[in-house]
């Protein structure tokens, strides 16, 4: 490699591994000066405007030994830094057992800490992942802070498996993930692997659309401190402090983060007050790593769950029907993880973790003119007046404990052809659901802490998997993955509709997966796979349907994936097709149970069929382009809609049969594009585009119950500098929705008949509710790294 002539006050060079490959993102500093650089895509670096003198140059890169040497300025020496792998064991194996590799025949993408940091100004993780393939994200409050969610391939959060360091995060009962309970968690994430479709076997609830495999911060070899502050529209503000010791005695490292996020929200009164911390400490030996993570979040979020009625979208998009000053969700959650990973001889690696999560909290509601019999209370008698309805304030509580262990054991043959893993986990969830009346308009026969309902649920979940990749010939890999999962779920007590939900259900699932991958030395790869997943119903499916009389059936998914990948110096792209065939998928139909609650019911036959394209291209030193687009067809063969009919004296439900309709919340087109422009060193301007096709609010494919398609455009500015008093100083400005588009990515609907004049004697009423997202708004932040 040849270099242009050096100016006397500059240092140029390249950072490479022992194979001669450039290492991107290596830290290069002149010790004690505050001057430094980061290696680019080819591993090149340059430090400018250095006064004459003698300096110590230090180069660090995760997983490699630190490099130091003395340099004399001015110099004409061309530096080539070769880094050797670290003798310390890295933490990558913590998530290895539950992740896909480049030889696994499934569809996945990876988001690293640099991608996350560019957008991380206080919004929740689903918003930060909005530009990854087939993702649609949304926010109840309309600005990305508070309650947020995402769908991947049309599958909602309850069908997306999430693990943190291989430990399940999904709520064991609802299968959901409540990101609001983990504010600013993105600041403690090293990388995320997103597998679409069934993917490889993992721990926790079954993957029924995608999985998010999250690895938290890994070891930093040097001591550091980071201060990050951001401010923006809707009085949004984020303050974060992060510190780390670096390696102590070449064996120990400790890290910590403290965060506070607040916002008043785009929707009226949809405020959020969020606090969190993350603590980590570990021992890093040559063959063993023992690490402890403790992280927690506390949130007080004003409820914006009900959405905006369709008739108000044009005149009052920020409408919130709740006006009671403490109509909030108040919840705290603590996570404890003890993790071990190590090498056991020449061919074996092991990983094991113990975990415990403690959650507790409530949501409080003002209920005007509510019926006392809903709470098991007799009418209040005042004089000769019997009062059966009055204003009430209630709290609904959830106290839960989730604990267990996960493990994986990896064998790699001497010739590298066989890579096999045995793993699994055993977890227990213990949840206490209860409700209290904390205020009544007129004193009744109840005390402030009396529980008007109280039930306990215990769920045991055990899984074992064995997966292996074998190279049968040069570049051809066969893959097999077998998982067994056993669930015991028990209820005891009275539900919030005052119905006894005592019962027990058991499931035993077998989830096989197999396929092949073929790779060439030219960076080309073909893959294909077939996978099966089975999933138990969620809590509400059991509590809304009497377990003994009418238990819902489990869901089954068969998934075929096939794709082609191409990796080159300046570009990469992926193309894949998928077919996801469901049996007994559980969907809302409008049907009522025996006490009048709406239930989900199994539909026999439904599917998703699609093609996904994504890639990136480096046009020049200044321009790069990345993007993705997905086209899909998402259908239910036969859907039975149940409509309430209030037009007759004796209430009834009418059944309407729909054939070959779209699955709700499944747009046929989802796309994103990011254009990056770097006009000068350390300054980047990015245009971020997102398109989501129209979506139906239910499974009837009714044009009157639909979310319209939308385009959004965001503009981001990043500038980094290295003043003498800090290692790095970075400014970020994010302008969201620069063209002020009015759009709604989420909503719900219900319909019913009412009496009306005319031959039919009734009229169909449809009520749609939407979650509008903010118009043009901004976030700006400054980050100091010491």
TrEMBL record:
Family the UniProt entry places it in: Belongs to the TonB-dependent receptor family.
Cellular component GO terms, alphabetical: cell outer membrane
Protein source organism: Cecembia lonarensis (strain CCUG 58316 / KCTC 22772 / LW9)
Matching InterPro entries: Beta-barrel_TonB, Beta-barrel_TonB_sf, CarboxyPept-like_regulatory, Plug_dom, Plug_dom_sf, TonB-dep_rcpt-like
Pfam families in the record: CarbopepD_reg_2, Plug, TonB_dep_Rec_b-barrel
Topology in membrane: Multi-pass membrane protein
Locations listed in the record: Cell outer membrane
Main localization category: membrane
Keywords linked to the UniProt accession: Cell outer membrane, Ion transport, Iron, Iron transport, Membrane, Receptor, Signal, TonB box, Transmembrane, Transmembrane beta strand, Transport
The protein's name: Outer membrane cobalamin receptor protein
GO function terms (MF aspect): siderophore uptake transmembrane transporter activity
Chain segments annotated as coiled-coil in the UniProt record: none
Residues in TonB-dependent receptor-like beta-barrel domain copies: 316-738
Keyword Secreted set for record: no
UniProt cross-references to PANTHER family, sorted A to Z: FERRICHROME IRON RECEPTOR-RELATED, FERRICHROME OUTER MEMBRANE TRANSPORTER_PHAGE RECEPTOR
SUPFAM superfamilies: Carboxypeptidase regulatory domain-like, Porins
Limits of the TonB-dependent receptor plug domain: 102-209
Keyword Transcription regulation part of the UniProt annotation: no
């Amino acid at each position: 490699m040849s270099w242009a002539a050096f100016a006397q006050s500059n240092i140029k060079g390249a950072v490479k591994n022992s194979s001669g490959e450039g290492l991107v993102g290596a830290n290069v500093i002149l010790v004690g000066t505050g001057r430094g650089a980061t290696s680019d895509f080819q591993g090149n670096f340059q430090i400018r405007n250095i006064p004459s003198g003698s300096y110590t140059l230090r180069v660090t890169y995760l997983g490699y030994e630190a490099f130091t040497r003395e340099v004399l300025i001015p110099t004409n020496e061309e530096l080539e830094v070769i880094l050797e792998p670290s003798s310390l064991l890295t933490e990558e194996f913590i998530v290895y057992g539950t992740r896909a590799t480049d030889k696994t025949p499934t569809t996945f993408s990876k988001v690293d800490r640099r991608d996350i940091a560019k957008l991380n100004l206080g919004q929740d993780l689903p918003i930060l992942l909005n530009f990854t393939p087939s993702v649609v994200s949304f926010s109840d409050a309309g600005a990305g802070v508070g309650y947020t969610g995402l769908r991947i391939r049309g599958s909602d959060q309850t069908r997306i498996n999430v693990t943190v360091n291989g430990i399940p995060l999904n709520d064991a009962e609802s299968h959901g993930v409540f990101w609001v309970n983990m504010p600013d968690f993105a600041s403690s994430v090293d990388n995320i692997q997103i597998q679409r479709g069934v993917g490889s076997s993992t721990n926790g609830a079954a993957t029924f659309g995608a999985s998010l495999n999250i690895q938290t911060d890994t070891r930093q070899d040097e001591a550091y401190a980071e201060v990050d502050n951001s401010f923006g529209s809707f009085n949004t503000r984020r303050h974060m402090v992060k510190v780390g010791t670096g390696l102590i005695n070449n064996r120990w490292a400790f890290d910590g983060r403290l965060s506070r996020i607040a916002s008043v929200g785009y929707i009226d009164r949809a405020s959020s007050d969020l606090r969190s911390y993350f603590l980590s400490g570990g021992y890093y030996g040559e063959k063993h790593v023992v690490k402890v993570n403790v992280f927690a979040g506390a949130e007080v979020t004003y409820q914006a769950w009900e959405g905006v009625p369709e008739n108000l979208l044009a005149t009052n998009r920020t409408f919130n029907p709740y006006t009671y000053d403490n109509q909030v969700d108040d919840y705290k959650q603590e996570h404890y993880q003890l993790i071990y990973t190590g090498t056991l001889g020449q061919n074996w690696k092991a990983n094991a973790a113990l975990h415990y999560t403690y959650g507790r909290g409530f949501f409080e509601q003002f209920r005007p003119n509510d019926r006392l019999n809903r709470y098991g209370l007799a009418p209040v008698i005042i004089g000769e007046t019997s009062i059966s309805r009055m204003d009430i304030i209630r709290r609904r509580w959830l106290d839960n404990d989730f604990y267990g262990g996960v493990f994986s054991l990896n064998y790699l043959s001497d010739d590298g052809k066989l890579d096999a893993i045995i793993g699994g986990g055993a977890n227990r969830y213990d949840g206490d659901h209860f409700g209290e009346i904390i205020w009544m308009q007129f004193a009744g026969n109840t005390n402030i802490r009396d529980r008007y309902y109280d039930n306990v649920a215990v769920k045991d979940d055990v899984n074992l998997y064995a997966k292996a990749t074998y190279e049968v010939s040069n570049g051809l890999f066969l893959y097999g993955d077998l998982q067994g999962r056993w669930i015991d779920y028990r209820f005891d007590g009275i539900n919030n509709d005052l119905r006894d939900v005592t019962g027990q259900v058991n499931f035993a699932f077998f989830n096989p997966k197999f396929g092949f991958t073929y790779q060439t030395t030219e960076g080309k790869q073909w893959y294909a796979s077939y996978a099966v997943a089975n999933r138990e119903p969620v809590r509400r499916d059991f509590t809304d349907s009497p377990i003994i009389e009418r238990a819902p059936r489990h869901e089954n998914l068969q998934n075929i994936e096939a794709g082609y990948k191409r990796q080159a110096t300046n570009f990469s792209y992926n193309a894949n097709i998928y077919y996801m065939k469901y049996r007994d998928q559980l969907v809302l139909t409008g049907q009522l149970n025996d006490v009048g609650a709406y239930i989900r019911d199994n539909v026999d036959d439904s599917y998703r069929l699609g093609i996904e394209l994504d890639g990136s291209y480096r046009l020049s030193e200044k321009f790069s382009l990345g993007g993705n687009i997905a086209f899909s067809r998402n259908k239910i063969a036969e859907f039975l809609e149940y409509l309430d009919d209030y037009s007759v004296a004796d209430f009834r439900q009418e059944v309407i049969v729909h054939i070959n309709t779209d699955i709700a919340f499944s747009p046929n087109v989802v796309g994103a594009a990011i254009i990056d422009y770097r006009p000068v060193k350390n300054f980047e301007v990015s245009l971020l585009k997102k398109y989501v096709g129209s979506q139906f609010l239910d499974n009837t494919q009714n044009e009157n119950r639909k979310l319209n398609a939308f385009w959004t455009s965001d503009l981001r500015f990043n500038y980094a500098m290295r003043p003498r008093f800090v290692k790095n100083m970075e400014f970020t400005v994010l302008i969201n929705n620069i063209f002020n588009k009015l759009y709604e990515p989420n909503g719900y609907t219900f319909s019913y008949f009412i009496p009306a004049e005319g031959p039919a004697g009734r009229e169909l009423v449809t009520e749609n509710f939407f979650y509008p997202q903010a118009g043009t708004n901004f976030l700006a932040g400054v980050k100091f790294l010491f």
